[in-house]
Specification:
By secondary structure, this protein is α/β, with parallel strands linked by helices. The protein has helices spanning about 20-30, 45-50, 70-80, 95-105, 125-139; strands at about 10-15, 35-40, 60, 85-90, 110. It is globular, with a radius of gyration of 15 Å.
């Protein structure tokens, strides 16, 4: 019989100037069924860039922050050699924002229209939509 292996929690960095959006993301992750995780919130992208980003399995960033756009943050994170997945959440309907994020190195860009009950459309961020992405980020 094999010994049960403990799985270390997934380490997620959330860079967003909005505490309310951080709370909503935390609720979404709790509802997603994600295995154990630690969610670290940093409001300022410049401070996030000064941390050891490689300690995180996943970085989730806001698209529109006052001091630095999410795509610029993603570009700088990739320049530092971060190879794990990056997800950007955006409240913008402008398709160039999504394109800009992917060009900068994002692995996934989702709108910030939260749905907590059922998956209503492709334009809604729902925890069940991101669970496979989150699991691929970890395993």
């Amino acid at each position: 019989m094999k010994a049960k292996r403990d799985i270390a929690p997934m380490e997620i960095l959330h860079v967003d100037d909005s505490r309310a959006d951080h709370i909503l993301l935390r609720i979404m992750l709790e509802e997603s069924g994600l295995p154990p995780y630690n969610l670290t919130h940093v409001e300022c992208p410049q401070i996030a860039l000064e941390t050891n980003l490689n300690q995180y399995h996943l970085v989730i960033t806001d698209g529109n922050m006052p001091r630095m756009h999410g795509a610029d943050f993603i570009h700088r994170v990739r320049k530092k050699g971060y190879g794990n997945p990056i997800m950007m959440l955006t409240g913008s309907d402008d398709p160039t924002v999504e394109t800009r994020a992917y060009v900068a190195g994002a692995d996934l860009v989702l709108p910030k229209r939260y749905a907590t009950d059922e998956i209503g459309s492709d334009s809604m961020f729902h925890p069940k939509m991101i669970l496979p992405f989150l699991l691929r980020s970890y395993f």
